[in-house]
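Progress against Task 2.4 (sequence-to-structure conversion) is shown through the following example record, which the project officer requested during the mid-term review.
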Amino acid sequence: MVVILDPFNIVISNEDSLRRHQLYAYELRKKTKNSSKLILISKLKRNGEWISSDHLVILQFPFFLFSLTKFLKKNNRKIKLIVCGEPWKTYWIIKIASILSKTKIPVQLQFHGDFGNIEWINQRIINRIKFYLIPLKNRQIQSLRFVSKKQLLNFKSRRNVNKGVFIAPVPIIGYSRKDAYKVKSLRDDIYSIAFIGRLESDRGLNKFLYFVKLMCKLNINTEIFVVGSGSKKYQLEKFAKTLNNKISLNFLGEMQFNEVKKIILKSDFVLSLAPFESYGRTIRESLILGTPVLATPSSGSQELFQETNQKGIRLLPNLLNESVLESELKFIKLSKLNKNMRIKIFIENQSDRKSTRLNSSHEWISR
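Structure tokens generated for the chain above:
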């Protein structure tokens, strides 16, 4: 039995997040030759209702810790691995529940953020504290999961990693080889731009607002598809009302992956403005579909920039003004991937292809 514990981060309105967890657990089972089913323990809601199925165990708050303790004690011999969704709050819940249940089930810590990036570490005191409090010396932790080479290298440059390391990007689901052959049909009279992700400050919203203001000054017909939700949505909607009639912000909310795919295909380019991105799924999806990406330099965007031979991604300079943006807009339409590169990205991001390739190199993987 593989248990994925992520009590804080999976409150979903669609099935995509759940499917990615299922796929990751499936790959873990293949590698451990364990045919048992996935147990996903989380605070999972959809439309106000608790999701339930044969592969989910819902431990409802506020009794989560006590329910988890009981669950670990009951299934101690069945559970082969507990996957910890993030290395802080979730880890300490597992630690306390393990002590109370008197179990020592192996744990894998997952790292999805760009935690080793020195700029992230120095951004706030709490970030520095969190980084150096990651409990790498605990014997119960047997492996660490990173999502990219660059993320791992950043982390290892500042922390001694003496655990087994497993590199597995967040899988891209719902795509086929045919997507890498699709031809885009775009309008010449307007720029169509996609901005996809959580509408939160840490996702580069201030830079997004600044970008939109510059587009207004350039007086270019522009439509921007805003896909996602978050606490800053009201602020963005209020900001949209102040724009001139040359630019429009279309708020589409949370969407299923097949609908997001359509938005990416009808866009001239995708904006990725998060300052700390480890290996962005949206960037990789856009590249497969042949849609260029205008991105803030981060570990993830820089790594993908190199992997694609500097095609398909334009890295925004720190000092962005009207003339620079006007130049970037000219380049972005020319910055497209050929079909061979799109197919290569598709193949490497299916199932465990990427992780298998990396696992063969002892430079990246220590066991």
